[in-house]
Structure formats: C-alpha cells, structure tokens
C-alpha cells in the first residue's frame, strides 16, 4: 500500500491475479465492492435476491478485445440476462466508460471550474493547462474509437488506471472515483430489471412497457445510491455526494456518444434520461452538476457537428443546459 503516499515515480496497480486484458481490469474488484457495500440494507437486498434466484451472485464481465459495436449494429453495453439472472458488462465498454469519464471531468475542471475559481479570486489559483485539455481530448478520441474498432490502450502515452506517474495521479485517481460511481449506477439499473422486470417480459410486452421499465430502473438506481449517503454535514459527506452525482450523470452521458440521435423505441430518449436524473439530483441547486452535463453535451455536439448555439448570456449552467436540450428536441422534429 506504499503507493498511497507515493509522491514521485511510476504507480503500478497491475497484479498477477487480475482478470481481464485491458488496463481497466485493476478496477473490476472495486466495482463489485462499491455495488454490494452501498449500504447494509442494499447488501441484504442483494443477498435476498440471490436466494430468490432473481440475481446471480456472479457478475459477468466479458473479457474480449473487440469493439463495442457489434456486426449487426447493436452495442455491447451493460445488460441484464434473463436466463442466467446475471448482469453482463463488457470490458471494452468499461474501458470506454473510464476514458469518457476522464475526458468529461478534466474538461469540466480546466474549462469551467478552474476559470471560475480564478475569476472569483482575482488571480490564477488554478493555472489552466492546455496540455491537460488536449490530453483529455486525446483520451476521448480513444474512447470513441473503441465503439467501432478495438485497439490496445497505450499505457505509456494515455492516462489509465493501471500505470501512471505519481506526479500526475490526481486526475487519474479522481476519475477512478467517478468511474466506479458510474458503474454502480449502471449495476443498480440492471439489478432493477432483474428484480422487477425480467419475469414480466415476454413476446407480447409492448414498447411502452419497456419505456416504463427503463424509467423505473433509472429512478431506482438513483434512489438506492442517494439514500445510502450519510446525512451529516462534513467535507467527507459532501465529497461522497459529489462523487455519486457526477457518477450518475456521466453514466447516462456515456450513452450519447454512440450516435448523433437520441431517440429509441424501447429506451427513453437519452436527453430525457439525463434531464430526469439531473432534476432528481437537484434537491439543492448545484451548478457544478449542470456544468458537467453541459460539458458532456458539448463533446457530443463537437463529435457529430450538431451545431448547437452555446449562449453566453445565460445566468447559470442549468439555464444553458435547458437551452441545449431545447435544441436537441428541435433536431428530433
């Protein structure tokens, strides 16, 4: 555990007993730990679901060096398997999710949060690094490439959770937190399907019922995470709350980058999922969470050349967010 206080040199988390072939493998165990130890009541709920054969105790991670998009045009995204009662995650998707998380978070800090802090203080409390911004863009380019074609993650050139310099640990280790929170949101989403929906689905299930199930899965996932947070007033509680909120939002944002449109037959439109989550989280107005969402939408806009008008005359990022969502809706009509 000497890496915890390490100030210089290479930090290497690789272990002989790691499962998987991609750098994200070093966090697989943390995903399981975070999920099952959300709270004592959640642990008991998962245990009871296993006893009732609604949930397989094994989390299925597909270790295969292949793209996220399948040959038939569908995607290797998280899924609840009705026959085995397993939650299935694909390792390439997890790599994509970490890289997307890193890119959104770094761009938020370097282009929104740090400039705001500097303006408020009247001097450069946090120097802006163009190098960090460009590196975040390069990591996002790699994430997008995984959708269509698998290539190995260059651990010597790109930030990753397995091997990195102690001098540049902050962004990597902060990303690890938000990534595992995003995975936890996804796991609770799929668990809701297994516990409440899978046994209700057959060849006669209508698209409208699928939409209801998806909305319930998002809502239950958010409730499970938020209700498990401590309620005392302390910096640690604030940090845990921020981590959970950012993870939930990025978990949904990650689904935007697969295509230029957001509509679906059996899933709510991605922007509706995102808006519902943000409103559910906004029990105290936190401009940072709306800023995170705007950064993700900006990256999606740039990816597909959607041409949104990013107004600078609005009072806060919540207003900017709804301005962009109105433009997303206009694209659908």
Question: Could you describe the 3D structure shown?
Answer:
The protein has 333 residues and is mainly alpha-helical. The protein has one domain. It contains 10 helices and 5 strands. The strands form 2 sheets. A 3-stranded mixed beta sheet has the order 2-4-3. Strands 1-5 form a two-stranded antiparallel sheet. α3 runs antiparallel to α4, α6 runs parallel beside α8 and α7 packs antiparallel against α8. The longest helix is centred in the first third of the chain and has 31 residues. It starts with 9 loop residues before the first strand and ends with a helix.
Task: Write out the strand line-up for the largest beta sheet, numbering strands in chain order.
Answer: 2-4-3
Uncertain runs: none
Range of strand content: 5-15%
Mean pLDDT across the residues is 94
Structural class designation: mainly alpha
Number of domains: 1
Anisotropy-based shape: globular
Helix content: 55-70%
The major sheet is characterized as: 3 strands, mixed
Rg (C-alpha, Å): 20 Å
Q: Could you give the order of the helices and strands?
A: EHHEEEHHEHHHHHH
The quaternary organization reads as single chain
User: Got a strand count?
Assistant: 5
Terminal Cα span:
55 Å
In brief, what are we looking at here?
The protein has 333 residues and is mainly alpha-helical.
SSE arrangement:
Layout lengths: L9 E3 L15 H9 L3 H12 L8 E3 L16 E3 L4 E5 H31 L8 H19 L14 E3 L3 H29 L9 H21 L7 H19 L16 H12 L5 H18 L12 H16 L1
Helix pairs in contact: 1-5, 3-4, 3-5, 3-9, 5-6, 5-7, 6-8, 7-8, 7-9, 9-10
């Amino acid at each position: 555990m000497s890496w915890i206080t390490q100030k210089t040199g290479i930090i290497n988390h690789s272990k002989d007993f790691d499962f998987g072939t991609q750098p994200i493998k070093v966090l697989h165990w943390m995903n399981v730990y975070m999920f099952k130890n959300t709270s004592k009541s959640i642990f008991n709920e998962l245990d009871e679901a296993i006893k009732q054969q609604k949930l397989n105790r094994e989390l299925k991670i597909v270790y295969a060096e292949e793209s996220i998009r399948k040959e038939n045009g569908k995607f290797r995204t998280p899924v609840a398997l009705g026959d085995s009662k397993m939650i299935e995650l694909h390792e390439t998707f997890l790599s994509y999710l970490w890289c997307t998380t890193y890119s959104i978070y770094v761009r938020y800090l370097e282009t929104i949060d740090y400039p705001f802090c500097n303006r408020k203080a009247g001097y450069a409390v946090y120097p802006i690094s163009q190098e960090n911004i460009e590196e975040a863009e390069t990591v996002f380019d790699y994430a997008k490439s995984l959708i269509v074609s698998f290539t190995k993650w260059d651990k010597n050139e790109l930030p990753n959770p397995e091997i990195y310099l102690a001098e540049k640990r902050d962004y990597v280790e902060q990303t690890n937190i938000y990534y595992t929170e995003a995975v936890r949101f996804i796991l609770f989403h799929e668990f809701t399907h297994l516990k409440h929906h899978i046994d209700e689905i057959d060849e006669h299930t209508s698209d409208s019922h699928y939409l209801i199930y998806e909305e319930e899965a998002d809502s239950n996932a958010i409730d499970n995470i938020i209700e498990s947070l401590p309620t005392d007033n302390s910096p640690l509680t604030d940090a845990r709350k921020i981590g959970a909120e950012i993870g939930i939002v990025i978990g949904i944002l990650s689904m935007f980058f697969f295509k230029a449109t957001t509509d679906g037959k059996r899933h709510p439109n991605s922007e509706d999922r995102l808006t519902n989550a943000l409103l559910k989280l906004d029990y105290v107005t936190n401009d940072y969470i709306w800023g995170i969402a705007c950064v993700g939408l900006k990256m999606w806009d740039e990816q597909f050349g959607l041409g949104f008008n990013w107004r600078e005359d609005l009072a806060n990022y919540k207003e900017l967010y709804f301005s962009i969502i109105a433009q997303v809706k206009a694209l659908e009509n």
